[in-house]
Amino acid sequence: MIIGKVTGSVVSTRKNDNLIGNKFMIVEPVPSFHNGTRIVAIDNIGAGIGEYVLIAQGSAARIGCGVPDAPVDAAIVGIIDDGTGLE
């Protein structure tokens, strides 16, 4: 899993049928936990901009967000209540 901070959202009116009704958020991984760039993650739990979240990737993301047949590479699977020491 990856720890990241939600920095924005993405709106897509045309997308794969399996993704209709889902929200997409831009997540910036916390540098000390992941060496990468921003991630677009599906969000079924209602994360907001500025919150720290847990991200699952690959098949765990598809299963974790309840869309096993959708083309999902990353999913927000948790909101971190206490992010002490993350920055």
Helix-strand layout with pairing:
Blueprint: E1 2-10, E2 23-29, E3 39-43, E4 52-57, H1 59-64, E5 74-79
Parallel strand pairs: 3-5
Antiparallel strand pairs: 1-2, 1-4, 2-3, 4-5
InterPro entries: EutN_CcmL, EutN_CcmL_sf
Keywords: Bacterial microcompartment, Carboxysome
Pfam family, one: EutN_CcmL
What's the quick description here?
This protein has 87 residues and is mainly beta. The protein has one helix spanning 59-64; strands spanning 2-10, 23-29, 39-43, 52-57, 74-79. It has a 5-stranded mixed barrel.
Strand share of the residues? 35-45%
Rg over CA atoms: 12 Å
CATH architecture: Beta Barrel
Secondary structure: helix percent: under 10%
The structural class is: mainly beta
Number of helices, where a helix is a run of at least 4 consecutive DSSP H or I residues: 1
CATH topology: OB fold (Dihydrolipoamide Acetyltransferase, E2P)
